[in-house]
Design goal:
Layout lengths: L1 H18 L1 H24 L3 H24 L11 H29 L5 H28 L1
Helix pairs in contact: 2-5, 3-4
Length: 145
Amino acid sequence: MNRILSSLMMLMMTTMLYAQPGVRREMMQDRVEAQRIAFITQKLQLTPDEATKFWPVYNEYKEKQQDIRRSAVPERNIMDVTDAEAARIIEQHFATEESILRLKREYYDKLKNAIPPRKIARLAAAEMEFNRNVLEQIKERMQDR
């Protein structure tokens, strides 16, 4: 009986989620974010005290990094630009990368107050491993369809 009730509840929730694509996407993003937090916390072996200090600083860093990247998106399709426009886009790309490097240096100093440098050094590798895992899961789901 519990299985039938659970199945009906899942069916109703799935139907509601497909009716509201924005909600479904947000739920998926929240789930991936929770997995990312758990993965990085485990990979860096953060203590509860370190995690409490680390995550607010790291999340602020990631938000600022996204803001920089969003502001650098070319207005046009790169395949349809003139040489002058391409040169401007390339220069903008370099400026964006320089801004991100400055941001990394700034937040390295902030993160040192939360966790030891050896854990900060492992952070990029943990992020890449998590992203690789997520892409593999997406690829598997696409193949199953």
